Amino acid sequence: MLPGLRAVYAAYVREAAALPSLPGPLEAEAWTSARLGDLESAAPHAQGRRAALGDLITCLAADGGPGSRAFLRALAAIGPAEGRRAAGRAADRLGDVPAAPWESALGQVVLGPVWLIQEGPLDGDRLICEFRHRDAGPHALAVRLSPGGAPVEIVLVGDVPALMAAARQAMRAELCTVQPYAPETAGHRLRAALRPDGPEPMPTACYPALALARHRAAVLP
């Protein structure tokens, strides 16, 4: 549908060949989220974003290699809702292609503690939501929201104990406050802030982790 992006799709297919060698589902989800962020940041509108996603799924299905299967499974797990079913069906058609060892864990996380960090009235709120894949340590989604509720920064944190230790050290120095936060409230705020049709443009720095953040926000109650 978007022939001008053929070179981009081809590059993604080539890069996906290394995807099955990543150590676990979190790394695969982060890799996939970054590619989706590139596509969304370049899309002029929602229709263009959907067209690019459809083209990418078609190209991965046509390649049919283990990396493309892994990419399709990741898209089916954490990608935009409008493409998940198509990506899953395309991956199903590659049933004879070897699966990545972590394929079944993609998108399968349980929620841990949720924290609110406040540094000052002009800095907005930072929401820290912990998650865990089965048989894996915790990771966290850290989203800083402006005072008006718009996303300013989205960071995927692999070392949660180090993050919380630094936050508590800053709290002792009276640089911020750290407190438990209701998951229901965090989910409502994050889903509103991260929706594709938000009232404000998404900051460029947010795009690499955006798809993963939307998935994790959907896990919150």
UniProtKB/TrEMBL annotation:
**From what superkingdom does this record's organism come?**
Bacteria
Designated name of the protein: Uncharacterized protein
What species is this protein from?
Actinomadura meridiana
